[in-house]
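Q: Convert this sequence to structure tokens.
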Amino acid sequence: MQTVQVGQFKTNFSDILKKVSSGEEFIIEYGKRHTKVAKIVPYKEETKQRVFGQLKGKLDIPVDFNHDSQEIEKLFYSV
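A:
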């Protein structure tokens, strides 16, 4: 992990990004006291596989789930 000042980071931005994309990490420092303000790490996209049917048998959806209900229509639409 390398540490760079903001000015050096701005000057060598493209080169630093190339190094980051190949796996290196950088810490950005700011000011005379070299205050650490940021860490740049390679981006890793999470690819989770969706599992279809994982709730099968655990939920009970009534047969009339999608049918209109007089009571609900009255509550929502004041019919």
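The CA atoms of residues 43 and 70 lie 52 Å apart.
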